Amino acid sequence: MLYDHIAVNGQGHLTISGYDAEALAAQYGTPLMVLDESVVRSRCRVYREAMAEALPAGSLPLYASKALSFKRIYQLAAQEGLGVDAVSAGELYTALKAGFPMDKVYFHGSNKTDFEISFAMEHGVGCFVCDSADELRAVEAEAARRGLRQRLLLRLTPGIDPHTHVKINTGRIDSKFGAAIETGQAEALLREALDCAHVEVLGYHCHIGSQIFDHAPFCDAAALMLDFAAAMERKHGYHAAVLNLGGGMAVPYVAADPRIDYAANIRKIGALVRETCGRLGIEPPAVLMEPGRSLVADACVTLYTVGAIKEIPGFKNYVSIDGGMTDNPRYTLYQSAYTVYLANRMNETAAGRYTVAGRCCESGDLIQEDVSLPRPRRGDLVAVLTTGAYNYAMASNYNRVPRPAIVMLGENGPYTAVRRESLDDLIANDL
Ligand code: LLP
Fold it and tell me: Tell me, what's the pLDDT at 339?
């Protein structure tokens, strides 16, 4: 199977960490997201332990909570000793209500509103990741008004294309995020920040992309950032104590995808950081990383009930499910590959190719096209693997479809962590 925690039991049912998918669907209803706590915890530990061992003191993974944000996930991150990357007042508020320590929160976003800046300071957010000169000025003004000194990192664009693994001087520089090293804007932002009385610059941040299988682009980005750090140290006498390398390590979604050794990648980045700092003659900074997908994606399976089946001879076969782009828009948006099973008939041989269609009035509402499945029947159970990241987080109420429940598999058994949206939830804000 694609992952160790996915198997098939004697009844031919898919199991998730030993729990029968059909029994979970019967108990909690569908569509249902089943998220295994132990997979999330063990991945947090891989990052935390490898980073503590291979990187300078103070290095830490921060959970990029844009991947999946609800109260319980922040509690897991806190218990596992991680920090958090939050990107909006909504994510900050969720973390706050979950009891997550605000001093371990890094506040991201390329357009933080005045309200969000004030809200974050009011609740003692540990560090801003400052994206622009405009934001810097707004943060300085708000920190001055409050009589505090706000810690921050400066978000920079090192000019790396992670998917071709080539250093480029133009591509990523036109990103809407951060200040480009190449154009001199990064240096200008640093100089302005160092002149701000109510700001303490801890160091730099970069994020080169997502779903990156190779370690090399991270090493390239780290090297470019350290070159910049050393240049700024020589020129302005400023030592960056922190380097945040962002998130982006991939997760296999289908059997053909390579498996990733996260600890080995971290060790390679650690070796690169030590070697580069030695060569440049600078003190190695503490390294932060912001994994999102690789902490939660493969921990989750979404279960759907089959409804209508439509076979169009010579053209296409559709199997309709009781969810779709409203809970997982990633095929619609990115044509993302997923592993799909008929979860209650795992041992039956495939009868043909079926396109898994959602229930929205939208031809593009598909979860996956042309999947080999046994001939589905109304009432069967479809399982889609690897749905922990950027599914629920990107869910919508299009067609007024309620969002699914999230059931977590904890130490003491399954429990509901996010209630299924009700019809009344859908009209809660309608006056
Ligand atoms: N840090 C920053 C600043 C980011 O922008 C992101 C993701 C992360 C960390 C986490 O990256 P990860 O480890 O999850 O790759 N909706 C897209 C993914 C967008 C990623 C946005 N930024 C998808 O469904 O594939």
Answer: 98
